[in-house]
Write a structure and sequence with these properties.
With 317 residues, this protein is an all-alpha fold. Helices cover 64% and strands 1% of the residues. It is globular and about 60 Å long.
Length: 317
């Protein structure tokens, strides 16, 4: 019997709150970007960067709403750990680039108030995420033999090399944009500033951690929420990139790499979801194993009959 941790209520509440905020804020950033407006918390030279950040936020939101269906921490950590990276990372980037915020730059009133609310909300969510994560890992492990989880569905051997390439690519790009935004930002195939480069780096780093985490889990049943998020993020990001097609230098090496990574992200999510659905159907179609027969009970002991008493005729001399 495996010793596992039950999912804490704090993680469920956090994911639902972040899901609602991500859906509304991400939709705002994405839609305004599609119409050519940069409505991010900081001033951006182009509308593409805040649109991509909004696409990631809107794409991950539906998966966050499903975390409450899980019972075990191991079944959702491949999505929750990247979520904590995004919340703490975006809050840190917003503080480090405080001079680029719309409020500091004297932007329109709505965007100035939006940037202040962005920082305050991210600060509260990041603090709550770290607290919930610490509480989850301090939660005592318990045996779950009374209600066993679904059988493991290992990743196919052919899927592991592509997963490693896609995850390493996103992880490396994200780390480079975060640590060295001046150098790596110049390699982005459209115009970005320091805040854009680091904000995109946070999401790239989280995607890399999520993909590599799925590879480490090696169990499709444990990455079910992440499989719901990955293809949606890639799909919404592809729509934003298609609308801003002329702003991207697709003939450059970084442009080709971006296209390959977004395609790989979408393919990873769709293929993983298909494999998991097939495994679920096969599990439902398989006949249930007959219950084990109880061992035969030993025969009950029969008490010995008392000895017969002699008759009076036998007692007579």
């Amino acid at each position: 019997m495996a010793v596992q941790k039950e999912l804490s209520p704090g993680i469920v509440v956090l994911s639902a709150v972040v899901g609602g905020i991500s859906l509304t804020t991400g939709a705002l950033l994405t839609v305004t970007s599609l119409f050519g407006y940069a409505a991010g918390a900081w001033v951006s030279p182009e509308a593409l960067s805040p649109g991509l950040i909004g696409a990631a936020m809107a794409g991950v939101a539906p998966a966050l709403f499903t975390i409450g269906r899980a019972r075990l921490w191991e079944d959702v950590r491949s999505l929750v750990l990247p979520l904590v990276i995004v919340l703490t990372g975006l809050f840190t980037v917003s503080l480090l680039n405080g001079g680029s915020l719309q409020a500091a730059e004297g932007g329109p009133l709505f965007l100035a108030l939006f940037s202040l609310g962005w920082v305050a909300t991210l600060g509260l969510l990041a603090l709550g995420a770290v607290g919930c994560l610490v509480a989850q890992y301090r939660r005592p492990a318990g045996r779950t033999g009374a209600a066993p989880r679904r059988p493991a569905v290992p990743l196919p051997a052919w899927s592991k090399p592509p997963l490693a390439v896609v995850g390493s690519g996103w992880l490396g790009i994200g780390a480079g944009l975060l640590a060295f935004p001046g150098f790596w930002g110049a390699l982005v195939p459209w115009t970005v500033n320091r805040a854009d480069a680091q904000g995109l780096g946070v999401w790239a780093l989280a995607l890399g951690v999520g993909v590599l985490g799925a590879l480490a889990e090696d169990d499709l049943t444990r990455i079910r929420p992440a499989l719901r998020a990955v293809p949606l993020i890639a799909l919404v990001a592809a729509v934003v990139l298609a609308v801003h097609f002329r702003a991207v230098d697709w003939t450059s090496g970084p442009g080709v790499s971006l296209l390959a990574l977004v395609t790989g992200l979408f393919t990873t999510g769709v293929s993983g979801h298909w494999l998991l659905s097939r495994a679920d159907r096969q599990g439902e179609a398989a006949p249930a194993a007959p219950p084990a027969a109880a061992p035969d009970a030993p025969p009950a002991a029969v008490p010995d009959a008392p000895p017969a008493r002699p008759s009076p005729a036998e007692d007579a001399p």
